[in-house]
Request: fold
Amino acid sequence: MSSAERAGERELPYDVFAKVCPSRGTLEHVTGRWGGLTLGALYEGSLRFNELRRRVDGVSEKMLSQTLHALERDGLVHREAQPTNPPRVDYELTPLGREVAGRLLSLIHCVEGRMDEVLAARERYDAARGAL
Reply:
């Protein structure tokens, strides 16, 4: 019995738990630190590169560029280059990217909303380990 069948879901043609499944790479792009934050920032609307870099505090220019390329390749982000001087490039979510980002933001909001519990658990854990 597959994991999807055990969970009562319909059988899908891809299995992220399989080492060679292409969905694993996309999951890594979406759930990695910069991918998740980039998708979340773009959910708010179209942004230029430097606007996005300011919104995703701490990301380097190189990492943001690599992240955007991966998300664009996966069909989650659309890059629109305007033939102006200087060139203007805007990034926005595709319909698929918007769906994925919406689900990711639900998880982000859940984590943000439960941080008091997380911090308390960390404190208990650290105190218990320090007592050993």
